[in-house]
Amino acid sequence: MATTTQDASSGNRFDDMAESWDDRPDVRETTHHAYEAILKSGYPFDPNATSVMEFGCGTGMLSMKLAPHIKSVLGVDASEGMIKVFSRKIANLPTTAPELVSKFPYKPQSIFLERPGQLAGLGGTDGSGLFDIIVTHLAYHHIEDLQSMTDLLVQYLRPHGRLLISDFEQTFTSKYFHPSSHWHDVEHHGIDKNALHTILTRAGLFNVSVETAFTLQKPTESGDLSFPFLLAQGQLG
After folding, report:
1. Where is this region: Disordered (predicted)?
2. The whole model's pTM is what?
3. pLDDT surpasses 50 at 155
């Protein structure tokens, strides 16, 4: 939900917003809808088996929602401020939600995920093939090279693993999703549905689908606008 790879400048912006991130109504609403869409995606979540990475995890809001349905989750984000908030949530789990403590065996990682092997030490010889599912919400539009990032994420999937991507769709008005003062560090003003389908297919994924999952009504510099959100998914063979 926050920064991911090439965007060091926006990483600083997300650091500044981290402490109040969870207070934003649009963040809470889109995260809840993304969570619901992921649960309805058709993947057979198993609280005793399913291993998840959340890429661009922000403060871990989506990971916390998914935790009861999975065995473990690792959060990865380029913003140190966001990871600090997420880590504090995990540290507080023995008091706030002790039943979820075991779901977070790994410390959230504040890294620019941009090459294989950066998660070495978590499993395997180079960190590859670790996860049954990789989920990402409101992160892809911050990535310059979507094909390269998708190719990289696929390497972290186990055989038959699944990649699920939630982000707002590119439309005639989608650039107004962010205020104009942030346009300089937004790589894509929305994600093109057909292009994303092609990207997942070229990454070697099967059973690819890209569907409109929900719509967000949001006040913007151009008035109240409607932003459709996509849920894309594909499975590794």
Report:
1. 1-22
2. 0.92
3. yes
